[in-house]
Amino acid sequence: GAVVSQHPSRVICKSGTSVKIECRSLDFQATTMFWYRQFPKQSLMLMATSNEGSKATYEQGVEKDKFLINHASLTLSTLTVTSAHPEDSSFYICSARDFGQGSGNEQFFGPGTRLTVL
Amino acid sequence: QKEVEQDPGPLSVPEGAIVSLNCTYSNSAFQYFMWYRQYSRKGPELLMYTYSSGNKEDGRFTAQVDKSSKYISLFIRDSQPSDSATYLCAIPSGSARQLTFGSGTQLTVLP
Description:
The complex is a heterodimer of chains A (118) and B (111). Chain A is an all-beta fold. Chain A has strands spanning 4-7, 10-13, 19-25, 32-38, 45-51, 57-58, 67-73, 76-81, 90-97, 107-109, 113-117. In chain A, strands 2, 4, 5, 6, 9, 10 and 11 form a 7-stranded mixed beta sheet that branches. A 4-stranded antiparallel beta sheet of chain A has the order 1-3-8-7, with no helix packed on it. In chain A, β4 (32-38) and β5 form a beta hairpin. Chain A is globular. The model of chain A has no long low-confidence stretch (mean pLDDT 92). Chain B is an all-beta fold. Chain B has no helices and 11 strands. In chain B, the strands form 2 sheets. In chain B, strands 2, 4, 5, 9, 10 and 11 form a 6-stranded mixed beta sheet that branches. Chain B has a 5-stranded antiparallel beta sheet with strand order 1-3-8-7-6, with no helix packed on it. In chain B, β9 (85-93) and β10 (98-101) form a beta hairpin. The termini of chain B are far apart. Chains A and B meet through β5, β9 and β10 of A and β4, β5, β9 and β10 of B.
């Protein structure tokens, strides 16, 4: 149980274009999903908390107009990187909490999306 | 002071060795503690979670929490080359139980 998928797994785009990344919980409903960014040889940095049916909560320093998050259903959250630039190149990972497992605090992660902006 | 600090490594051990991975945390109110394993270019995978102090064992893995010293550990017995990965400690906090991760320890188990 507790499987999270992400699509696409890898994307290469030109500077100035927008990229949408999808995160789905496959076998459970997730009212809360999280988006992380990870640079090479670094730990995961939380970008935002995505809440179903309401606005996302962004971490300090993360531009909400650049990283648009939509959580329209209990199984899908999307992250859109708008007007991407080379410095946005990174590994983006989503996660979801499954309240029905364990303590309810555990997050289950997707496989990640590697974004390269040329 | 960071909320969660982790021994950075990298760590290289021979196959069959016992591995000890460690983190410290600053907030005494933390009660849940998790360990994730991340293979290169993959998302983290939940290994174990523990609540409060004590030990929890799952196969070759043992998670240990010492709340008095704010110290958490993950032990791997009979380490295998397939255990080679980055190990991350994580602690949930905040209203949405956001995870704060340690910096990760890269482990290599040599055959």
